[in-house]
Design goal:
The complex is a heterodimer. By secondary structure, chain A is an alpha+beta fold. In chain A, about 20% of the residues lie in helices and about 30% in strands. A five-stranded mixed beta sheet of chain A has the order 2-1-10-5-6. In chain B, a hairpin with a 3-residue loop joins strand 11 and strand 12. Classes of the chains: A alpha+beta, B alpha/beta.
């Protein structure tokens, strides 16, 4: 059992090495943002629901985020081209790792599900600091669900060539609605 | 590497570099193209396209289903979500970059336009209120159903298109693989090539290193086994190599020598400055004196500080770090010691040889003196009343004595030649006259054996110059030999010019006979010493065996050749070839053979003679001799008064003593000749106590007509006077002088005539006083000479000899005079050994002279005085 709310200093016991290792990975990956305040309840319409092996919740076993809550999380943005769009676009959002840290995710992988029922799974290790973000703005505009909105997991394809792979393209799920953290 | 290999090596290298660069560029270009293609492949999402396209139909169906089931607000919201999904899907396909290729297909484009038309028309309804949507949702559902085939068509079409594209991509990939393989193959080939080159170079370098190390080993072995020290020095003078022999020679171990400064270690301190200057000179000017100069002998330094002589040769080689010097050195201490020993041994041998020659000379001289006595007594005995037997015995004794005398003369001649005292005069020659004279002398002996002598001289008189006495001696010897070994035959004497050379005329003198001949095997050795061939005709004629060897020596000394052609039984032909220089001044054709006073047949005329002589006794002596012959004598006592008298008086002859105080005879003669008075045309006879032929030449050059050497003997003196004045018309050419010396010499130990003349001139009492004084002088001189001998004091010996020679001449002590003469000459030439022997001889000769004079004049010898002055018994000196 780990009480992550107390941060690293509050770490009192380690039941198994595996657990400790997972937390350590999260601590490395998400830095100081990994441990934030307890989630408040969403006030606007819910854009994203995170459930599964998480310790920060604001509903029954789930963490729900409205646009304002997402915008309150640390912002990450970059410009990139994608294979699904013409020209270069500016994407603004929250690093996937920051989202997972905000919910106290402690699993090995996530499953992300889109409004159109498309879904992917990826190991938590792929939620690197310089990796994918959960974008909520494209070129400063909210994205419509008739396009790729409202949320789009997108990789910095231009900055980091290692993401220009079929796998990363398949992981770039748009119309994202739900994330399930699995152990 | 040699300079000639450089360019080709450079060319090959640059060609190789260009090839490699070209290949590398190709490989890089290929690699870049491969990489970009690979990147393209990696980032081309194929499956996603199909998924999206197939999902278009699914989303359409889902939207259609939602439309049919739409009732109530939730059903409408559900439809809206489905519609949005379908819209989103369509939007992706219609605007996504990856779908561009599919969109390009006209049918697809048409289909997409159809869907877009639907969506555009549906939007106001979907986005409208629930009522609006509720009213139109059925219609939308039907439209969606109608579009189902269109969506399917797009999916199917895209399958077709993507299949083609996939095939293209596969082909591209395949060609990429092939290209990669090609590049890889080229690379491998290139690597293999480089490997081969590397291996080859590696092997070559191994082989070279091997050869180098072998040659270095050989060189090291060569250097170390060298018997000569080898020292290698760099440009800074530091020793960089030093072999085993050098360790032995210099005494430094190799470890100490290497790196040391050569100049400090191996060069003696006093030579270092010169060495450094030489090195500086070489480095700045490149001028080499020792380096590459072959063998040089220098002094070197050993470790123990001793110096020793070395022979060395230094070579220089330039390498990258500057010149290095390689010195080969050999310690020549021992060699020099051996050389010195050899030189000393040779000198000892030579001095021993000279001592032997001197001994021979002195001994012969000593033998001749008593022999003269024996012969004289035998002559007297022959004139007495003898019976036949006695007369025969006297004749045999005389003959034997004469032979003995000739042998002694021969030995004397040899020793004179050997000691290098043979000097030649040079005067115009009448070779015909000489030959005629020789013929005349030999005629009696030749006639005895039935031989004829014929003489032919083709060299005109006075065209060549030379030494008449030596030439006569040569001819006498050859003709005498021919006469001895020929019976009833012909002896031909020929003198002819052979050719002209730069030095003068080469003449050949030949003497042919029809006698026994000389066997071929003996021809070479007959010119050696003491060789006599068996004489069949006349035992008495056998000689000393020195005649021809004397000839050989004389000819050699004159720079000529002598030889013989002969066959046994048919006769011999001896020849002499000489180069005689041309006579400077011609002589009258009737010039007599010089040196032999021709007996004056004409009645001697009365001459007026000026006698310049500072010595009273000598002046008296000569005046008496001249007066006895009826000549008129005017006396002068020194050079100056002699010149004055000559200028004022009228004379037929001037007699000039050579050594006089103040103005000597030579200078006086020169002045008289220069004054141009009547006396300048008058013959001048020089009189000197002692003179070498070279000095006599000086007198002649000063203007003397002849030189006479003291002691003055009446007969020869008067004959020379006659001779000089008989060439009346003009000033005669200088007379030979050596002959006078010869004639004056040594017939008797004491020339009684001189002694008699002295008595006649001075009167008994004065003569006795002179003789007494002479005895004392002799005693004093002998003592002084002995002392000088002990001290090896050549200067004193010379002065004593000179002083006593004058007195000996006056008293006619001929042997003593010539002995002193020899002593003086030896002293002048610095020949100590010879001087000591002569001094010893002088002592004996002085004793002899004193005892003979004492006996002859019945004047007691002052024994006591001799002892007193000598400080000992003179007899003990021997």
């Amino acid at each position: 059992m780990i009480d992550v709310r107390d941060g690293m200093h509050g770490m009192v016991a380690v039941s198994t090495f595996t657990r400790y290792f997972a937390v350590w990975l999260l601590a490395i990956g998400f830095g100081a943002n990994a441990f934030s305040e307890p989630l408040r309840a969403p006030e606007g319409s819910v854009l994203l629901t995170v459930e599964g092996a998480i310790s920060n919740t604001n509903a029954d076993g789930a963490a729900r985020f409205d646009r304002a809550m997402l915008e309150a999380l640390p912002v990450t943005e970059f410009e990139t081209t994608t294979i699904w769009t013409e020209a270069k676009h500016r994407f603004t959002g929250v690093a996937l790792g920051d989202v997972l840290a905000a919910v106290g995710a402690r699993g090995d992988a996530i499953k992300a599900v889109a409004l159109n029922d498309y879904s992917i799974t990826m190991p938590l290790t792929e939620a690197r600091e310089d990796g994918p973000i959960v974008a909520y703005l494209m070129d400063g505009e909210a994205m419509s669900s008739r396009g790729k909105g409202p949320l789009w997991i997108i990789f910095p394809f231009d900055d980091r060539p290692e993401f220009r792979t079929e796998r990363s393209y398949s992981l770039s799920i748009w119309q994202l609605a739900r994330i399930i953290v699995t152990e | 590497m040699t300079a000639s290999r450089l360019p080709s090596r450079l060319f090959v290298t640059s060609a190789l570099v260009m090839l490699v660069a070209g290949i590398a560029a190709t490989v890089v270009a290929l690699s870049v193209s491969l990489l970009s293609k690979a990147e393209e492949l990696r980032s081309a999402p194929q499956d996603n396209i199909r998924w999206t396209l197939s999902q278009l139909e699914v989303d359409l169906l889902l939207a259609a289903v939602a439309a049919s089931e739409a009732s109530g607000p939730e059903g409408l919201d559900a439809f809206r979500r489905r519609f949005d999904n379908f819209y989103s899907r369509f939007d992706t396909i219609a605007s996504g970059r990856v779908f561009a290729e599919i969109r390009a297909e006209p049918e697809v484009e048409e289909d997409l336009a159809k869907i877009r038309g639907f969506l555009d028309s549906a939007l106001p309804i979907v986005d409208g209120s629930d009522e609006v949507l509720d009213a139109g949702v059925r219609n939308l559902g039907q439209q969606l159903d109608a579009l189902r085939d269109t969506a399917r068509e797009i999916a199917l079409k895209s399958v077709e298109i993507t299949a083609v594209l996939s095939d293209q991509r596969r082909e591209e990939f395949q060609s990429l693989l092939v290209e990669s393989a090609a590049v890889a193959f080229v690379l491998i080939l290139l690597l293999g090539l480089m490997l081969a080159v590397l291996v080859k170079q590696y092997r070559e370098s191994i082989r070279r290193a091997d050869a180098l190390s072998r040659s270095r080993e050989r060189l090291t072995a060569t250097i170390n086994s060298s018997l000569e020290a080898i020292v290698v020095v760099d440009a800074d003078g530091r020793i960089i190599d030093y072999n085993r022999a050098a360790e032995e020679v210099f005494g430094y171990p190799r470890a100490q020598a290497i790196g040391g400064e050569m100049a400090k270690l191996l060069i003696p301190e006093h030579m270092r400055a010169a060495h450094r200057a030489g090195m500086r000179r070489f480095l700045t000017t490149g001028e080499k004196r020792v380096i590459d100069a072959g063998r040089v002998e220098l002094t070197a330094l050993r470790a123990d500080g001793s110096e020793f002589p070395v022979e060395l040769s230094i070579g220089s080689v330039s390498d990258a770090s500057g010149p290095i010097y390689i010195a080969y050195l050999r310690d020549i201490t021992q060699r020099q010691a051996v050389e010195r020993e050899l030189r000393d041994a040779r000198d000892r041998a030579m001095s021993a040889d000279r001592a032997k020659s001197d001994f021979l000379a002195v001994m012969s001289h000593e033998m001749r003196t008593p022999l003269n006595g024996v012969l004289g007594v035998l002559d007297l005995l022959r004139e007495t009343q003898l019976d036949q037997l006695q007369a025969d015995m006297v004749r045999v004794a005389l003959t034997s004595g004469e032979i003995l005398l000739r042998h002694i003369e021969d030995v004397l001649d040899i020793t004179r030649i050997e000691s290098g005292r043979l000097e030649f005069t040079s005067e115009p020659l009448d070779l015909g006259a000489i030959a005629a004279e020789v013929e005349a002398i030999n005629k009696p002996l030749a006639s005895l054996r039935g031989n004829r002598i014929e003489t032919l001289c083709e060299v005109p008189a006075a065209t060549v110059a030379g030494d008449p006495h030596r030439l006569r001696q040569l001819l006498m010897n050859l003709v005498g030999n021919a006469a001895k070994f020929t019976r009833d035959g012909l002896i031909e004497v020929g003198i002819r010019p052979v050719r002209q050379t730069k030095q003068g005329t080469e003449i050949e003198i030949s003497v042919s006979d029809t006698g026994l001949g000389i066997p071929h095997e003996d021809q070479a050795r007959i010119f050696e010493d003491f060789v006599t061939l068996d004489s069949r005709y006349d035992r008495e004629a056998s000689g000393s065996g020195l005649g021809l060897s004397i000839c050989r020596r004389i000819v050699a000394a004159m720079g000529g050749e002598i030889g013989v052609e002969s066959s046994a039984g048919k006769g011999s032909r001896f020849w002499i070839r000489l180069v005689l220089r041309g006579a400077a001044t011609g002589l009258a054709a009737d010039t007599h053979p010089v040196g032999v006073p021709e007996p004056s047949t004409a009645r001697p005329r009365r001459l007026r003679i000026l006698l310049v002589e500072d010595n009273d006794i000598n002046r008296l002596l000569m005046r008496e001799m001249l007066a006895s012959a009826g000549h008129e004598v005017v006396e002068a006592t020194d050079g100056a008064s002699g010149i004055e008298a000559a200028a004022t008086g009228e004379f037929d002859l001037l007699l000039m003593d050579v050594s006089m105080p103040k103005l000597d005879g030579v200078e006086a003669t020169r002045i008289i000749r220069a004054l141009g008075t009547a006396a300048a045309q008058v013959p001048i006879l020089g009189v000197t106590a002692h003179a070498l032929p070279s000095e006599q030449r000086r007198f002649v050059e000063a203007g003397m007509s002849a030189v006479m050497v003291k002691p003055v003997r009446r007969s020869s003196f008067l004959s020379i006077v006659d001779k000089l004045c008989s060439a009346n018309a003009k000033l005669p050419a200088p007379l030979d002088v050596g002959s006078i010396d010869d004639d004056m010499n040594e017939d008797d130990p004491i020339d009684e005539e001189t002694l008699g003349a002295l008595r006649a001139a001075l009167g008994d009492s004065r003569a006795d006083a002179v003789i007494h004084r002479f005895f004392r002088e002799v005693a004093a001189s002998r003592a002084a000479i002995r002392l000088a001998v002990e001290r090896e004091d050549l200067d004193t010996l010379r002065d004593e000899a000179h002083a006593l020679a004058g007195s000996a001449a006056i008293l006619g002590a001929a042997h003593l005079h010539s002995g002193l003469d020899r002593l003086e000459t030896a002293c002048k030439t610095g020949d100590l050994a010879r001087a000591l022997i002569c001094a010893d001889g002088v002592d004996t000769l002085a004793e002899e002279a004193v005892s003979i004079i004492a006996e002859f004049t019945e004047i007691a010898r002052p024994e006591d005085a001799s002892r007193r002055i000598a400080g000992g018994d003179p007899a003990s000196a021997n």
